[in-house]
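so my prof wants the structure for this chain in the tokens format not the other one, which i didnt know existed until like an hour ago. anyway here's the sequence
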Amino acid sequence: MAVSVPKLTVGEVVEIDGRRYEVVPTRDGELTLEPPITPLDELHAIEGTKLASAEDFERLSGDVPYDDEG
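here's what i got, hopefully its the right format
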């Protein structure tokens, strides 16, 4: 029995054994499959969270030193 192999294009999302993969280019001009990048809005919807306000961010991270400070 012959199996047809579909041609994939960059940016296309495919499902293999229940897992989603995105077709992405490599530095060599080839194509590879990687787990897709999930948009931030979708992650917040899944987790039931929201983006922190500027005030909350400052309150929660104000004591964290910058990269060059320790």
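also thought this was worth mentioning. The mean pLDDT is 87.
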